[in-house]
Amino acid sequence: MAGLHTWAGVLAGWLLYAIFITGGISYFRDELTQWLRPEIPARPAMLDQTETAQRALATLAQQAGGAEQWQINLPGARSNVIDAAWESGDDYQRALLAPASGALLHPRDTEGGEFFYYLHFSLHYLPGTLGRWIVGLCAMMALVVMVSGIIVHRRIFSDFFTFRPGKGQRSWLDAHNVGSVLGLPFHLMIVYTGLVTLMFTYMPWGATAVFGQQARSELAKVMQVRFDTPARSGQAAPLTDVSPLMAQATAQWGKDSIGRIIVTHPGDASARIAIARSDTGRLSVSPSYLLFDGVSGTQLARHESASPALTTWGAAYALHLGRYADPVLRCLYFLSSMLGAAMVATGMLLWTAKRQGAGRRIVERGNVACIAGLASAVAAFMLANRLLPLAMPDRAQWEIHCFFLCWGASVVHAAWRPASRSWQEQWLTAALLWTSLAVVDALAAPRAFPIFDMAFLCLAWAFIKCRDVCKRTHLSIG
Asked: Is the pLDDT at 239 greater than 60, yes or no?
């Protein structure tokens, strides 16, 4: 078990660290997306969902009157825009609308917080589902590491209350134990539910046996609002007023509970309107919606729940994403993810402290690039958002390129410099980048989120402390 714990951790450690960091950031991806678009003002405190929907429908009638389908994601407590989309054949377009007026918005081109969300489970540039398979393998190895770690450390809970600073390797082992035990329930839950969310990718045979070639479309109904719509009649008809429809939905689900409105065949007698419930405050991702005739407003269907098996799967998915959580609980999600990253990082450091040879040198330099280098890469992505020219072609992609270029430079630096020096220099670089980010943001977007600037400065201070630890520690890292 000790060998299994050690080598499974070493083989998956670097990727697991990056997954914990980017996954933790993803719990605030909506707020981060707002920060990355400072041109869009904050959402007004009091905003009626019905009026917002009517403004969005009026704008779509002008911009996409002949489309086959409209989708409107209404703003909520974590969003300051209306995210609208329309489909016409193979043509799919999206636009951001102002909640107060319904006018088209043209913010800077950015992937926003979605970049970190997709990076943490698909590894961004890898083709097809290869990234998801690699992440799934790492998640399975993480479960092996956790279970074997519980077995190996017979005094794991008593050691949780013991920390001996300034004792070299013993101190790092104490830190590893504290981070592991404190976040253990979360770590087991998040890794297992991460596997469950993609289980139809890893183990598709059950769904294929039940649904055959229609498995993908049938499974999509579990997560998306899907309903049968008759073909266009060719007879023009105005869309019904959505106010009474939304009033019915609000009466069933509560105030500000509507998340999305979908209109098919707008302007035609065969139009349909689906009003879907938001995921906020709901421990499920199974779609809940009301379906109405788009012309008469008659309620045609009500979809509230799935089968027990799919409901269980949806609950596991919701636990992993944390969309149901309030701000305090999402902060706990984030802190637990950072504990997971600390658990992995201290484990990797302990491995290098106990060994000599070429393998140790490779892992040691990889630790520098992965642990300290990732901190600089995240700051580089956000600095690029503020510093790249607004009219730059492929601007969103260049933000991502800056992330990977900075991370790649960290790898080169770690391979070139002695390990003891590279740790200190990379932590100092990270601290300078995050401090610069706070300064640039305060100058470039003073009306954005000042709490972000405070967080950036706190991170810079933490990285300075990491540098000091590297200078004092008795491990071979400094």
From this structure: yes
